[in-house]
């Protein structure tokens, strides 16, 4: 009997890029004879071949756009490959996006039954595990509240709890664990490790958190432009990724790190140090200029930085509202200066997730992910200048001004 859980042979996924559909007959006829209507194609996956053994926990890493999420969507049959063959031995559970399979008007309790049934659980299976799911999720006090009133973190807690308690042989997990707080992320990782080691389930884990991958996955693959560029022990793959794949602060461009934005209502059009330097000693102040461009008027925009070290452990959070300075913009391009001070960080490169939110602060108007901000040199000691403490990492209060 084969010990394979998944066999992937020569799988490619091709997408077409082109103009929007014509809105008038004249435009449609014009496009027929116009070169502008020629569609370009690209491969999100390009001739992927991979065998995953039963009970194996395998990590998938790579830059944004490398093909990680596309691979999971192909494996979960959300989309189908353009060519190639996939053989899956066992039932698959997918946790790819927060809130997938949830109805906002239904309560948490009702959504457990809805989501569980969509994942293949019977009513009696859900009833038997209902209390365990609620306890694991930690949202018991809100279980009879409509999901639309949940935060994204609460939705993720409930979604993971349902998926983790489904009796499937294969679990696919995307970057959604980044939404939760530290304690819940730790509990999720322990659960996935338990599923693999004790329940012998196969787990495929996509994450930018390299520390979590190294802890959980013995083997990992590195994707780049739809191709597998390295496979092996997770430690070796991560080392190659850091040394050969990640952008340096000198090479980085915002467009290559933009995760999402909403119709250019507000975008981060530029970010750079005031003097162009990207390397600092431990005791030097780090000051950035951020250029925001908006096609709308906003009052009291919120900007947040989540700064990570080379192992993608979060080390610092910085929030514009802590500075007591308002960021207002009126259909224009403005530059704001953020002075982080001397954070006294350890040596190495530091990356940031940067979000711009409206005053409500629910979702990001623009989101830059894992942007290489700076490098720290000449470490003498590691005594951080702590302003406040939120959950185990530093929170720096910035000086903020419009220039």
Give a quick set of tags describing it:
403 residues; alpha/beta; Coagulation Factor XIII, Chain A, domain 1; 2 domains; 8 helices; 22 strands
Explain this structure.
The strands form 4 sheets. Strands 10, 12, 14, 15, 16, 18, 19, 20 and 21 form a 9-stranded mixed β-sheet that branches. The protein has a 6-stranded mixed β-sheet with strand order 5-6-7-3-8-9, sandwiched between helices. A 4-stranded antiparallel β-sheet has the order 11-13-17-22, with no helix packed on it. The protein is globular and about 60 Å long. Helix 4 crosses helix 5. With 403 residues, it is an alpha/beta fold. The protein has 8 helices and 22 strands. The protein has helices at residues 25-32, 68-75, 108-118, 123-137, 152-164, 182-197, 210-216, 234-244; strands at 4-17, 40-53, 57-61, 83-88, 92-95, 170-173, 202-206, 219-224, 227-233, 258-261, 266-273, 279-281, 286-294, 297-308, 314-319, 327-330, 333-341, 348-357, 364-377, 388-390, 393-396, 399-402. The chain folds into 2 domains: 4-244, P-loop containing nucleotide triphosphate hydrolases (Rossmann fold), CATH 3.40.50; 254-402, Distorted Sandwich (Coagulation Factor XIII, Chain A, domain 1), CATH 2.70.50.60. It starts with a strand and ends with a strand. A hairpin with a 2-residue loop joins strand 20 and strand 21. The model is unreliable at 384-391 (pLDDT under 50).
């Amino acid at each position: 009997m084969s010990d394979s859980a998944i066999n992937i042979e020569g799988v490619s996924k091709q997408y077409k890029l082109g103009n929007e559909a014509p809105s008038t007959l004249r435009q449609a006829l014009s496009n027929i004879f116009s070169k502008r209507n020629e569609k370009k194609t690209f491969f999100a996956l390009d001739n992927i071949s991979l065998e995953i053994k039963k009970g194996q926990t395998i990590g998938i890493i790579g830059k944004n756009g490398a093909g990680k999420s596309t691979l999971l969507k192909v494996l979960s049959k959300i989309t189908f490959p353009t060519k190639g063959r996939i053989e899956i031995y066992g039932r698959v559970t997918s946790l790819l996006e927060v809130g997938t399979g949830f109805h906002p008007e239904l309560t948490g309790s009702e959504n457990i039954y809805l989501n569980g049934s969509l994942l293949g659980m019977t009513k009696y299976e859900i009833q038997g595990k209902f209390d365990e799911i609620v306890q694991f999720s930690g949202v018991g006090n809100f279980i009879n509240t409509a999901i639309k009133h949940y935060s994204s973190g609460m939705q993720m807690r409930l979604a993971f709890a349902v998926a983790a308690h489904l009796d499937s042989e294969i679990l696919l997990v995307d970057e959604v664990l980044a939404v939760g707080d530290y304690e819940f992320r730790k509990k999720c990782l322990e659960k996935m490790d338990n599923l693999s080691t004790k329940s012998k389930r196969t787990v495929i884990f996509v994450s930018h958190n390299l520390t979590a991958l190294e802890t959980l996955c013995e083997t990992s693959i590195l994707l780049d432009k739809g191709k597998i560029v390295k496979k092996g022990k997770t430690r070796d793959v991560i080392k190659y990724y850091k040394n050969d794949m990640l952008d340096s602060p000198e090479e980085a461009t915002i467009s290559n790190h933009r995760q999402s934005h909403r119709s250019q209502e507000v975008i981060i059009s530029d970010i750079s140090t005031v003097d162009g330097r990207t390397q600092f000693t431990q005791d030097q102040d780090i000051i950035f200029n951020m250029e925001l461009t908006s096609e709308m008027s906003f009052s009291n925009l919120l900007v947040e930085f989540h700064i990570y070290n080379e192992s993608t452990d979060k080390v610092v959070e910085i929030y514009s509202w802590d500075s007591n300075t308002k960021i207002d913009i009126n259909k224009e391009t403005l530059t704001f200066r953020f002075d982080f001070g001397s954070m006294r960080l350890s040596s190495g490169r530091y990356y940031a997730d940067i979000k711009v939110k409206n005053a409500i602060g629910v979702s990001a108007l623009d989101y830059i992910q894992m942007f290489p901000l700076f490098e720290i040199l000449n470490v003498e000691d590691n005594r951080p200048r702590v302003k406040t403490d939120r959950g185990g990492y530093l929170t720096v209060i910035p000086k903020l001004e419009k220039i």
